């Protein structure tokens, strides 16, 4: 990938999983990183894996004032923001809709959807000036439905609708907005992986035409591509990275 060396990239949810793998990938391509996550321990570990010389602070994307303050601090520290990777999110728990609590609904909406809105709004003046890009994380459940995942689906379908609208709004200003939609990925927050049982993992593998789960590094490679010069005519795209679910 070309065009990322020296660019400043803000990553949310970079304390583990896809966010961490993407930070490591972009570090290797010469980008300057603003590593954020709700977990102090997580960002400290990611920072160490990226050479220890990037900006790294906690950020709760569900709190708009926290987002605005952190973005201002990043710009003051690093001078600008060229690209944004909206990766912070909460993975789903299967619930019949009648068992979904208001607290669960509010939490998923606040992080998975409002978080993307808040970070995008706060960074727009800077990314527009840089004529950079956004890559937002949806899910394969953002393009197809899943029984007992109604609220999660709503947030991830919402990310795609929001991203496509922003692509239309920001495209004339030279800013691209694209989406990556991962399938089953071996991350610590994947519910099946977290169960730690062979049955859960084998069930996810059987549901995939390639017979395996994806890795965070495979998603990171797509994110880096979408930010790079090779993807400069991609805007409003949704890239499904799921190995082809059955």
From TrEMBL:
Keyword Mitochondrion: no
Top-level taxon of the source organism: Eukaryota
One Pfam family linked to the record: adh_short_C2
Keywords: NADP, Oxidoreductase
InterPro entries, per the entry: NAD(P)-bd_dom_sf, Sc_DH/Rdtase_CS, SDR_fam
UniProt KW Secreted keyword: no
Record Gene3D superfamilies: NAD(P)-binding Rossmann-like Domain (3.40.50.720)
Similarity remark: Belongs to the short-chain dehydrogenases/reductases (SDR) family.
Protein name (record): Short-chain dehydrogenase/reductase-like protein SDR
Organism: Apiospora phragmitis
């Amino acid at each position: 990938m070309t065009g990322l060396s020296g660019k400043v990239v803000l990553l949310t949810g970079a304390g583990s999983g896809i966010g961490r793998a993407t930070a490591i990938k972009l570090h290797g391509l010469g980008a300057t990183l603003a590593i954020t996550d709700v977990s102090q321990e997580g960002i400290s570990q990611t920072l160490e894996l990226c050479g220890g010389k990037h900006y790294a602070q906690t950020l709760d994307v569900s709190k708009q004032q926290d987002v605005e303050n952190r973005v201002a601090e990043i710009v003051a520290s690093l001078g600008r923001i060229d690209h944004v990777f909206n990766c912070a999110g909460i993975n789903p728990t299967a619930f019949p809709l009648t068992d979904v609590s208001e607290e669960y609904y509010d939490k998923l909406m606040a992080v998975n959807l409002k978080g993307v809105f808040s970070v995008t709004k706060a960074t727009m003046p800077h990314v527009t000036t840089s004529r950079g890009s956004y890559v937002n994380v949806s899910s394969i459940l953002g393009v197809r439905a899943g029984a007992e995942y109604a609220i999660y689906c709503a947030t991830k379908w919402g990310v795609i609708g929001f991203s496509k609208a922003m692509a239309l709004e920001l495209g004339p200003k030279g800013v691209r907005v694209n989406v990556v939609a991962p399938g089953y990925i071996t991350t610590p927050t994947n519910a099946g992986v977290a169960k730690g049982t062979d049955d859960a993992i084998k069930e996810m593998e059987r549901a995939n035409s390639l017979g395996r789960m994806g890795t965070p590094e495979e998603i990171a490679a797509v994110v880096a591509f979408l930010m790079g010069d090779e993807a400069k005519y991609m805007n409003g795209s949704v890239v499904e990275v799921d190995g082809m679910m059955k």
